[in-house]
Amino acid sequence: DTAVSQTPKYLVTQMGNDKSIKCEQNLGHDTMYWYKQDSKKFLKIMFSYNNKELIINETVPNRFSPKSPDKAHLNLHINSLELGDSAVYFCASSALGTVYEQYFGPGTRLTVT
Amino acid sequence: GNSVTQMEGPVTLSEEAFLTINCTYTATGYPSLFWYVQYPGEGLQLLLKATKADDKGSNKGFEATYRKETTSFHLEKGSVQVSDSAVYFCALREGAAGNKLTFGGGTRVLVKP
Questions:
Q1: Distance (Å, rounded) from C-alpha B66 to C-alpha B50?
Q2: What is the pLDDT of residues A59-108, one digit of tens each?
Q3: How far off is chain B from A24, nearest CA to CA, in Å?
Q4: d(Cα B82, Cα B111) in Å, to the nearest integer?
Q5: Which one of A71, A80, B4, B25 has the minimum C-beta count within 10 Å?
């Protein structure tokens, strides 16, 4: 059973397009996250949702809009894609608490041409 | 703000060599500390964790000790295998940060037979 799944795995698109990445977790976790990993492997949190409520919003351009229809899903929509958006995007989830582990999805490699 | 600094890679070793990856942190409170591992083409997986000073986390032959006095959490393994080739991330989490993880820049380890 896949714990945290993302679709698509690869996404190639042109500048200016709008695209979405979907994430689902079947772990019963309360909290979900989006991370961006750049070409140098640097990993930075973008958003965090707890029970469909936004709790972390780092300084991410407002072209990025997360949407959580229920606590098992956190989708990422990106408007007007730019070259600098090319990266690997990871979804993760955790149970809300003190030291609970975050479980990561396999990642979506986004290439903007 | 919080930050995590890791030694830059790549680290190239022969099989059965001793591995150390240095990690130091800056935090305002008393964070929990983690090591995550990312195998090629996969998402991050929790390798080990420590929640308070002098705790030692261990898993799969890897160990790291939470040293508050030196604000460090160095990762060690006594005898590496080719299958340990991966990118290793040190991370911290503060309780008041909504489960937010702050990652170091990652250290690529390549183990040659």
A1: 6
A2: 789 999 999 999 899 999 999 999 999 999 999 998 866 456 889 999 99
A3: 14
A4: 5
A5: A80
